[in-house]
Task: structure prediction
Amino acid sequence: MLLSCTQSLNSVIAPGSLRKVHHIALNVKDMQASRYFYGTILGLHELTGDEVPATLVELVASGKVANFITPDGTILDLFGEPELSPPDPNPEKTFTRAYHLAFDIDPQLFDRAVTVIRENKIAIAHGPVTRPTGRGVYFYDPDGFMIEIRCDPDVH
Result:
């Protein structure tokens, strides 16, 4: 049970102790579709051979796990769950505590990314939008998990 803000804490993790996000894990229904989406369409590097963490070699070899690395070094683990079904077939009505996974892109490449999404007939949930904080487009991976590609404002 989480303590309320008014309760005193006996111990805490010291600020600065958590160094970075180690990995993000997603359950996916169709491993091949998800590998194509993250590796080919989004262009993330899939770990193979000696790049695969020793703890995951057997799972990767059996096709139950695929590992990708994001440009900032965060590992994205895909875990195959063929029986996985969303709570609702409409991804906009799906309940999850995670809202979306956002990737940053150079502002000069943003429009090309939107074109790639459209050319691959990937459903766009929202956008492209332009805000004071930059531009973004929201779309779904093969399992209905929302992905965002965003960029900071293009200032010259």
User: Anything to note?
Assistant: The first strand starts at residue 23 and ends at 28.
